[in-house]
Write a structure and sequence with these properties.
binds iron/sulfur cluster, mainly alpha, 108 residues, 4 helices, 33% helix
């Protein structure tokens, strides 16, 4: 079984354990990422170029966080990904994706 992770996972190969301190959104209003519906597609533009997008997304997926934009994905996008891959180890998947990002899409 294979499913593409259709998100840019950043350019750094090293996993950042202190990712929150590097978040592109750390200086914004948190409410901007916790909007509803189609507004989330606008909100996730804030994630473009965030250096810790993979770490942020892994946090949301591993903890099944249901609200808001995390790692450049809306709650609907994350729900669909979790439904397709209920047993995935997301940190490992996203670390692999980051390492192989320049070569090809990653499957889980
Ligand atoms: S990926 Fe988006 S939500 Fe996550 S830390 Fe970066 S800017 Fe914030």
């Amino acid at each position: 079984m294979g499913t593409s992770v259709k998100t840019d996972v950043g350019t750094s190969v090293m996993w950042n354990e202190d990712w929150a301190s590097q978040a592109a959104c750390r200086v914004s209003q948190p409410d901007q990422l916790f909007v509803r519906g189609a507004e989330q597609n606008k909100a996730k533009k804030m994630c473009a170029g965030c250096p810790v997008k993979a770490e942020c997304l892994a946090e949301a997926l591993e903890n099944q966080i249901e609200w808001g934009v995390w790692g450049g994905m809306t709650e609907r996008e994350r729900r669909a990904l979790l439904k397709r891959n209920p047993n995935a180890k997301w940190r490992a998947v996203l670390e692999q994706a980051r390492v192989g990002a320049a070569a090809k899409p990653v499957t889980v």
